[in-house]
Structures are given as C-alpha cells and as structure tokens.
Design goal:
Helix content: over 70%
Number of strands: 0
Mean pLDDT: 91
Number of domains: 1
Oligomer: single chain
Radius of gyration: 17 Å
Order of helices and strands: HHHH
Structural class: mainly alpha
Strand content: under 5%
C-alpha cells in the first residue's frame, strides 16, 4: 500500500513539475510559488517513504543537487530555456523532499538496529 502511495506521489510531483514549468511565461495554473513549492516538497516527502536502498538515496541526492545547477544552465536557452529551467528546478525541489524522508527513515532504521545491538534484543 505504501509503495503505491509513494508511486502516486512521484507521478503527481512529476506531472505538477512539468505542467508548472510549461506554465512559466505561457499561462497561469493558479498556483503561486509558495503553494507550488510546498506541494512539491510534500509530494516528495511522501514519495521518499518507500525508498530504502542506499544506492537510490545516493542517486536521488545527486539529482537534487544537480537539477538546480542544470536549471541555471537551461535558463540560457533561447525560447524554451525558462520553461526547461523551471521544470528542472521544480523536479529538484520535489526530489529533495524525497531525499529528506528517505534519509530520515534510513537513520531511524539504523538507530533501531543499533539500539537492538546494544541492548541485545
């Protein structure tokens, strides 16, 4: 069940990031920047709940770092650069939320194992 909810959150933040990115300069989707950012972070947090593998966390952390940098490069493209930059930036925000929840759950799992080791249970 949690895997399905995480998958739906990933689909939702990807669609929202693309639609909001295309909306930059073309039309308005009725979301201000604060609402969009908060929504992307919450969806990212939900999507990150099912991530347990260290490799996935590492790749997502790298993506969360690289996407905003990529957005600044894409912004320079004539015509479509602003939209591509907005999409990359939005995806970076959502993925960062996923990394936060995945790291927090990983720390919880590790701490739980450490306490069990120390207490002998």
């Amino acid at each position: 069940m949690i895997t399905r909810v995480s998958a739906l959150a990933r689909i939702a933040y990807t669609l929202l990031a693309v639609v909001a990115g295309i909306a930059v300069g073309n039309f308005s989707i009725g979301l201000d920047a604060t609402t969009l950012t908060t929504t992307l972070i919450v969806l990212g947090l939900i999507a990150g709940i099912s991530i347990r593998e260290t490799n996935q966390i590492m790749y997502l952390a790298i993506a969360a770092i690289v996407l905003p940098l990529l957005a600044s490069v894409l912004a320079g493209f004539p015509g479509i650069g602003a939209q591509l930059a907005a999409i990359a930036s939005n995806l970076g925000i959502a993925i960062a939320g996923g990394v936060v929840s995945a790291v927090a759950l990983s720390l919880y799992d590790n701490t739980r194992k450490d306490v069990a080791t120390v207490t002998g249970k």
